[in-house]
Structures are given as structure tokens and as C-alpha cells.
Amino acid sequence: MTVESTAARTPRRSAGTKAGTTGTKRTTSTTKKATAARKNTGKSTEPALVQLLTPEGKRVKNAEFDPYVDGITAEELRGLYRDMVLTRRFDAEATSLQRQGELGLWASLLGQEAAQIGSGRALRDDDYVFPTYREHGVAWCRGVDPTNLLGMFRGVNNGGWDPNGNNFHLYTIVIGSQTLHATGYAMGITKDGADSAVIAYFGDGASSQGDVAEAFTFSAVYNAPVVFFCQNNQWAISEPTEKQSRVPLYQRAQGFGFPGVRVDGNDVLANLAVTKWALERARAGEGPTLVEAFTYRMGAHTTSDDPTRYRGDEERLAWEAKDPILRLRRYLEASNHADEGFFAELEAESEALGKRVREAVRAMPDPDHFAIFENVYADGHALVDEERAQFAAYQASFADEDGGK
Ligand SMILES: Cc1ncc(C[n+]2csc(CCOP(=O)(O)OP(=O)(O)O)c2C)c(N)n1
Ligand SMILES: [Mg+2]
């Protein structure tokens, strides 16, 4: 039996159902779609992707996933395009701000706009998102003001937004850990009897973490309403995906007993459709789904990284031809869903966003240098007091040096 045919088995999700941990029942329609999605994996070494828009911007039919985007209006399509363009513009501004010394670090999402906007726009307001540190497009979809994403990267705060304000958790740097947080949160939703869902974002590198395997196990046996959204951008800093897995990542799901599907990560419509399907499964009590968005990190891992040391230009050039923004633009133009006026207006809006972000970052107040000693212990601690005093002395030493100036 090949790996692919094993993947087509019905996911085992009875444990949670039997234990009465699910408040909703399964629907046969979503189960059929799940089976069809797994069939789509094909038998070749490079599995088929769910794709609704080709790199040339041609709409391709997909019987299983078309129903999730069939009713989409021209205005909604323009909205997806606007989301991607503004996210990219914001991201470019942040990279420039780091180069100008205004940010300590930046993790660019360049190339991953479709995966993030497509999945982000599939969510309902009452769903909850657990991101990594690169989910600027998802943050945008959740209504988090982009300037709030920058405080942590400037080193002036520890997060920058109220996670419960937009059901968007703080950025998580500890690779893979948020998949466990998401699973626990999803198990809680089930106990509450709600029909909202959770989505956990993580990368190809994170898929090797023990936390992710544990999250898969728990979510499967407790039938938790969680979507694991893996952006396979081909690289984990300098390590290629071949160093993470001997099978395509979406196939990992089969061993845990839930479906996995690979989607063209640069196709915003496909990401929207597949994520809607996976969320529908979660809401219907069918448990977790693994979505592997096959995409590419066009830029460096972060501004501290130099990718020319470990990968060639050819790879990047090949992926530039699959640019997520360009393909939707081609589709919008070919189908007369957007005119020159729309693109010109968006260009002006992008520039205004860049300016707003620049000005907001430069105006961020410096934090109180002693704030780091607060919130360690509720009632204080002798060791923290000692460290605070040491730090005060250290700072005072600079004042002495500058004293004569
Ligand atoms: C537990 C843990 N181990 C190591 C690191 C260092 N680290 C930061 S990013 C990264 C690679 C992550 O790659 P991937 O999951 O593919 O996400 P991407 O950065 O490509 O979006 C590593 C190893 C970390 N932050 N946390
Ligand atoms: Mg990666």
C-alpha cells in the first residue's frame, strides 16, 4: 500500500465522539469532501495541489472546492486583492524601517500573502487564531492595526495588541508551541458547546517539533475543532523542507487519524476555499484538519538572515512567476472585475499606509527601562530587587561617561 492510499482512509475520530466531548454531529457532505480532498493527493512523488487560479490567472474548475467560492462577488475579489497589496506594502515598509534602524528585526511575509489572506478571510469573527511571528496578513484580516505589530519588533512592548480584542493571539516565537495552545483552546470551545473554530499557523520547520506532534495527537483523540494551517514556505531559516520530512507534510495527518490536504499556497481563492472547508469540518464536529499551503518564502528568514549563503536565485525566479498578487490581478483584468481606476486608487492607498506606518513607528515612545522588572512576581522578589539595582548602577555608569559632555 502506498503512502497516498493509506492517506485516503477515513480519519478515526470516534474517541472524542464516544467520550461525549463533541456537542455537534458530523455531516456526510463534509465527510465526502474530505475524502475527495485526500483523493486529490494523487500517486506521483509531487502530489497534486488544490488550485483554483493558475499562475497565469486562469480559473480552473474543482468540483470539490468550487462550492466554497462560487458565490464570490467581484467586489469580494477586489477586496482579496486589496488585502494582499496592502499587506505586501506594509511588509516592505517594515523591512525598510528595520534597515533604517527603526526596528530591531523584521520577519517578512513576502510571497505568502495568498496563503494568509485566503485563510484569514475564511474565518468568522468568533473563531480564534494562534499565529507565529510572520502572520501579518492574517493580522490584517483580523483587524489588528498594522502599526501594532511593530512595537515588539522595535523592542518597545511585549506584544502590542489585546489578543481577545480581535481573537488573534500574540505572535509566538517558540516554534510550534502555539499549536498546543490552539488545541487546548479548541477543546475548551467543545466543552462550551460553541460552534466556533480555531486555526493554528505554523511553518514547515515547526512540523518537526514535538509540540506539533502532541497537538495533532490531542486534537485528534479529543476531536477538537482546530485547523492546522502549515505554510510550507520551503525553508526553516537555512534548512530546506527535505530536512524536515520524507513525505509531503500534509500526509503527516494520516498517522494521527485526520485528513490533510495540500493547497497551492500562492492561490488566494484555493486557500479561501480549502480553509472554509476545513473550518466547516471543525464546526460540524469532524475534528482537526491539516492544510499544507505550498508556497515560498521570497525574502530572507528575517532581516538578520542572508539567504544567498544557502540558496540560489533560480529557485526564487521560478517562484516569482507564481506570484500570488500578480495571478489575481491577471484574473481580475481578464474577467473585467477591476479597472485602471481601482488599481490606481489602491496604489495611492498603499503609499498612504506606508507613510502612516513610518510615522507611527518613529513616534512610538521609548519604554521605561525598568518595566522589565515588573510583572515577574506579584509581590516582588529579593532577587529581582537585586537585579534592578544592578541595572540601575549599569545605567548610571553611562551617565558618568557622558557627564563632561
Ligand atoms: C523551539 C524553538 N526552536 C528554535 C527556534 C529558532 N527558530 C526561529 S525561526 C526557526 C525556523 C522556523 O521555520 P518554519 O517553521 O519553517 O517557519 P518560517 O520561519 O519558515 O515561517 C527556528 C528554528 C525557536 N524560535 N524556537
Ligand atoms: Mg518555513
UniProtKB/TrEMBL annotation:
Pfam families: E1_dh (PF00676). Keywords: Oxidoreductase, Pyruvate, Thiamine pyrophosphate. This is Pyruvate dehydrogenase (Acetyl-transferring) E1 component subunit alpha. Residues 82-363 form the Dehydrogenase E1 component domain. It comes from Streptomyces calvus. One of its GO terms (biological process) is branched-chain amino acid catabolic process. Residues 13-43 have a biased composition (Low complexity). Its cofactor is thiamine diphosphate. InterPro entries: Alpha-ketoacid_DH_E1_comp, DH_E1, PdhA/BkdA, THDP-binding. Residues 1-47 are annotated as: Disordered. CDD domains: TPP_E1_PDC_ADC_BCADC. The gene is pdhA. GO terms for molecular function: magnesium ion binding; oxidoreductase activity, acting on the aldehyde or oxo group of donors, disulfide as acceptor.
